[in-house]
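> run fold Lipoprotein
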Amino acid sequence: MMGRYLATAAAAMVLSACASSSGVTQLDRDTYMLTASSRWRGNDGVAIQGLQQADAYCKNLGRRMRVVGSERSDGLPVVLPPKALLTFKCDPAG
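> ok
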């Protein structure tokens, strides 16, 4: 049982190491941007990764995330990973 847990944890660490984010950049008072990419997740997975990161960022501020713009690129197999650029606002929770 413990070996199975360790193998699962190791696989998760390897996959997460291949995912990256530019971090959140503030564009305006409550408007932010981030770029997410991953060699392993594909275009939709990268978009979901970006949404999750934006949501977590706003929740950490005690606010609610709202997408105001997004762009995705498919990348090129082996050469360039897919990317998602997400612009979002952190609105007051209500």
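The chain is about 35% helix and 35% strand.
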